[in-house]
Amino acid sequence: xxxxxxxxxxxxxxxxxxxxxxxxxxxxxxxxxxxxxxxxxxxxxxxxxxxxxxxxxxxxxxxxxxxxxxxxxxxxxxxxxxxxxxxxxxxxxxxxxxxxxxxxxxxxxxxxxxxxxxxxxxxxxxxxxxxxxxxxxxxxxxxxxxxxxxxxxxxxxxxxxxxxxxxxxxxxxxxxxxxxxxxxxxxxxxxxxxxxxxxxxxxxxxxxxxxxxxxxxxxxxxxxxxxxxxxxxxxxxxxxxxxxxxxxxxxxxxxxxxxxxxxxxxxxxxxxxxxxxxxxxxxxxxxxxxxxxxxxxxxxxxxxxxxxxxxxxxxxxxxxxxxxxxxxxxxxxxxxxxxxxxxxxxxxxxxxxxxxxxxxxxxxxxxxxxxxxxxxxxxxxxxxxxxxxxxxxxxxxxxxxxxxxxxxxxxxxxxxxxxxxxxxxxxxxxxxxxxxxxxxx
Length: 441
Known about the structure:
Helices cover 68% and strands 2% of the residues. It is mainly alpha-helical. It is globular, with a radius of gyration of 24 Å.
């Protein structure tokens, strides 16, 4: 046999072997997308201490540690529950008529040890989603800050996460969730306007009304203890929000860049709109007003970050600031005690973003929706889908939260005692003080 023939036969065997090896390999990891998702997961977790600082600076000195503990405790409780059952409930196949999902193989995150989906290890996706499950109940805490018992809060967020957050997450983001499949291309909630902010804001409002106002809150002026800390917390939230929104693309590409851009634009528009409104209404622009506008803009763009362009983001940010500002004024007139405006910012801002994104969706998305609908699809049809999703989220969060609070209050007293409120959460529940480390005894 000639040497050239022998080389050709050997080459053919090598080629066939390489094809067989390629087909037998596990799906390849996209290192770029995975690196971005690891970064996004870290950024979203950074938002939790950012929220702790934002909330902690707004309460009275005697409650600063207790309020910050609400955010930090959620990092522990919700992570454990997410690993045990949350991930499976949120992203498993439908059970009980689609109320939530469940996959026994994912109990304790079993079954995903070597799983790769869309170029990303499933562990990374699971941990990214876990951060949303952490921050949502932490947002609720702002509504009843300075008057909830620590034990009651811990039990409440655990039950709320399992019965309210996980089913909502499944409906909106799981591939077989009924809101995910509503209309031509589903209800749009790119990064959590419905799942996170509306559910947290509405649940916070229900909890604030259920627990009642702080002692003497209508008669005493309750000033923030540290606005500098609040500003730093807001800055961390702004930075972390890039992971919150752009990470929801689950890729490192065009949609990621679009989401980052509109997130920045909406936050800036919200901040400037708020201080302009304050200037006309109060004659001065406040630091608290600026960061409130930042949050309003960020909340509003969260559901819309994957479908709107910068012009639409600017309008959504400014509109959210306007309506959130007047929602807080209305709260003051009605006299209920949503301590840190969880509903006024997150509830109202989430509703604005989820509904009004319908009028700023980019043409390419609408063209895909029309194709999926088999003909045409208008912004008003999408608005109807969004309105349905928002209405369902509000109703489910409100009714479910009330039932949880009512039943839980029979077992453990949710409202702090008068003694606890007078001493402060820091001293009464934690035996510490936020400033100076003065011995409470």
